[in-house]
Write a structure and sequence with these properties.
Layout lengths: L1 H55 L1
Length: about 55
């Protein structure tokens, strides 16, 4: 009885640890995507500003 309870606890703890790792990985993926989007936005903004400056000269 005790062994079954300990095994069940260890099993659910392992599942919980796997879920935590999965969530952490997904958060890192999302953070990376946001960083790329912001970088692209900054790049496009700089290009647009440069183009406008060239037109005004």
């Amino acid at each position: 009885m005790m062994k079954a309870m300990v095994d069940r606890f260890n099993s659910s703890k392992a599942e919980n640890d796997d879920l935590k790792k999965s969530i952490k990985q997904k958060n890192e993926d999302i953070t990376g995507l946001i960083t790329r989007i912001v970088g692209e936005y900054d790049n496009l903004t700089l290009k647009a500003h440069y183009k406008l400056l060239k037109e005004y000269k």
